Amino acid sequence: MSNSRPKSKCLFVIQDGLGDRPIAALGNRTPLEAAHTPNMDRLIRRGVAGLVDIVAPGVRVGTDIGHLALLGQDLSNGPYGRGPMEAAGVGMMLGHGDVALRFNFATVDRDLTIIDRRAGRIRERVDELCASLSGISVGSDVEVLCVPTTEHRGALLLRGPNLSAEVTDSDPNRAGEGRKVLPIRPRSTNPAAVRTAAILNEVVQKAHAILSRHPVNLDRERRGLPPANAVITRGAGGPREYLNLAKNSGLSIACVSGESTVLGLARLAGVTPLTAPQMTANLGTDLEVKLAVTLNALRRYDMVYLHLKGADIAGHDQQPELKKEFIEKTDRIVGEILRGYSEPVPLFLAFGADHSTPCELAEHSGDPVPVFLAGPSVRTDSVTSYGERACAAGGLGRIRCKDFIATLFDYLT
Amino acid sequence: MSNSRPKSKCLFVIQDGLGDRPIAALGNRTPLEAAHTPNMDRLIRRGVAGLVDIVAPGVRVGTDIGHLALLGQDLSNGPYGRGPMEAAGVGMMLGHGDVALRFNFATVDRDLTIIDRRAGRIRERVDELCASLSGISVGSDVEVLCVPTTEHRGALLLRGPNLSAEVTDSDPNRAGEGRKVLPIRPRSTNPAAVRTAAILNEVVQKAHAILSRHPVNLDRERRGLPPANAVITRGAGGPREYLNLAKNSGLSIACVSGESTVLGLARLAGVTPLTAPQMTANLGTDLEVKLAVTLNALRRYDMVYLHLKGADIAGHDQQPELKKEFIEKTDRIVGEILRGYSEPVPLFLAFGADHSTPCELAEHSGDPVPVFLAGPSVRTDSVTSYGERACAAGGLGRIRCKDFIATLFDYLT
To answer: Chain A partners of B27 at a C-beta cutoff of 8 Å?
Structure first.
């Protein structure tokens, strides 16, 4: 690819979980269709729209796979462990032989039956809880590191000889019906996997003992809050190769997000993560701060990914009205960015999502996501508003995420 | 496939580099959209249109890959060396163990710094220069053949034992900034590759000595023209299997073109290359000659590929007006063919391109190319004019080149 300076800058707005289905309460429109989005509609009129399947039609993906695809990674080159992504989100990069896991702080009873998979979505003093787990003694040759990531989540890293990521999760992924913390098992007969599973089970046991008498939890119990008295782990993974998107494209690229997984993936893909404590990856995220950081990033980088989590949260919470309102807020931020942008080269805009989170499902679906590209010389189409059904008639047609990303970078380089 | 006589003949018009982007100077239309093309528009009204990605959306390809796809070759079955294609373009087919390279005649100074990668786009007496290089002595067991192809380009063939195509280019692909002719290196530790690289470096050195005192170059220097005093090589390749499109389809097929690469690929694909010196593969090509050869070919063959290079040249030269005018000339030739066609079976028409060459880029892009098929029984759509954005709404949808070619042959056989 060309190494000459790009003739434009690019803002790529990613609305997490944006795609939805028609909802009766919204007049049989999706939240995006029902939302008043004058800025995005004006942009789409000078853009080319389409529908994107992250992997393939009807295939559900998580935020991790969705963002891997949006960051230009080759999904056929899997698997990608969620643990190393979570660790990378807070800057903890794996060395050779390391194993990282993602975990939740959870509330369990005495026999490890799960009462709350997220310990009341604990946010306060999670760093103190993590600090009490770093350095747990599990044999002389393995180091345990524990760092907080987003809200009730953290990353656990094992460092030492003869470790393997071929182990199962202790997180049963659902609470209720008497589900317990699962024993971690090796996924193969590899002695390193057997050893790693044993070490992790010891970590889970010791963590429960430490957390149960931790001052943070004693305080929570006094206040009637569920104690974060257990860690439930998932997504074990080791270090692996990622495509360096910045080097590969010859562009300097940043990613503005409040979510550690997204920030971690950005870092792994050679994209500079930019965040601030006010970016909560939630409906209440401070969009003004995101706006300021994004405008600043557009001065310093050729391309900026702006990740907004709100639509996904509202989808999981089955709140179509809130989803619509968050999309409207996003549209206002887009308007502010267009007004505030003052670089000497044109701004190329891309809009997309990592997956659909229909309110009726309260989880991700395999529906394609609406996308568009707007810039000085794109082949415009007849689409005049940003919506799932409008984009189905767009000039991009229905394409895969990797093809959409290739198209975007073909315009930029 | 059927071996019965086809119920129609087919003309496939390939406009090289046809696809473009909206251009302000053309009223935000592409050259194809801006061009007055009554014949193609009349055809597309009884046709089915679409957008074609040669490999995949956003993926840039060269004329070679584009034509391989249009000629029904399986691109996943790569790599295809450019050297053997160039050689095939002038009828030089490789035997087992041969290695062919494409080369430019270039102008270099005493220390092999490149002054002009194309030696002033030399066209005259290139055959004499090539003749002086054929038979260069490089060891007792290797034969060197050198043939002119298009303008300043030629093909170099090595024939002998223990040769390998696993060698790098001596062409740095760009001139300027003191770039020199690169030493050719083996791409592997294979002894045949090491030997071939050494032989080629010797060829490059000896060619420089011979060409520097060649009468053609002494004459050029007297006339103030840059001497063609070096060969810069690229695209080493050996013989390989190609799908025989004619045998595979049961049709007799010809290809009318002025470009040696296209003619070479046609020959490799079992398609009869038809050319004439007046076909220059340039904006000034004699379209009347192309018309006569094409009409004659339609009498003798079931199917004729008509390759027109002008749109691509105008795109590379950033001349939207010239690109539009060349497309209009093409349309007139299409009209003449329709008038001149007098075979007893209907004429099925296909229109396409090998890639996009947007004027704003001056190089190939990954934009899809507009295509259509017109014939008595295709499933017509609502598209009424031949253009990039009009075809986005076509009945073929957005498909890959291999799928378009399969569709075309499905109609013909």
So the answer is: none
> Helix H segments across A250-309?
260-268, 287-300
Cis bond before residue B368 (omega within 30° of 0): no
Whether the CB of A395 is below 8 Å from some CB of chain B: the reply is yes
Under a CB-based contact definition with an 8 Å cutoff, are residues A407 and A373 in contact?
yes
Angle (CA) B55 B56 B60, round 5°: 70
Cβ atoms of residues A160 and A143 within 8 Å = yes
Q: What does the pLDDT read at residue A283?
A: 85
* Cα B245 to Cα B9: distance, rounded to the nearest angstrom: 16
User: Predicted confidence band at B5 (pLDDT cuts at 50, 70, 90)?
Assistant: low
pLDDT 10s digits, A298-357: 999 999 999 999 999 999 999 999 999 999 999 999 999 999 999 999 999 999 999 999
The verdict on A57 touching B (C-beta cutoff 8 Å) is no
Burial A212-229 (b: 16+ CB within 10 A, else e): eebebbeebeeeebbbbb
Residue of chain A whose alpha carbon sits nearest to that of B25: A377
A371 membership: H or E segment, kind and range: strand A369-374
Work out the minimum CA distance from B189 to partner chain A, whole angstroms: 26
CB B165 within 8 A of CB B98: no
**Sign (positive/negative) of CA torsion B23, B26, B27, B32?**
negative
Whether the predicted pLDDT of B216 surpasses 80: yes
User: CB distance from A399 to chain B under 8 Å?
Assistant: yes
ipTM for the predicted complex comes to 0.81
Predicted confidence (pLDDT) per residue in A349-370, tens digit? 999 999 999 999 999 999 999 9
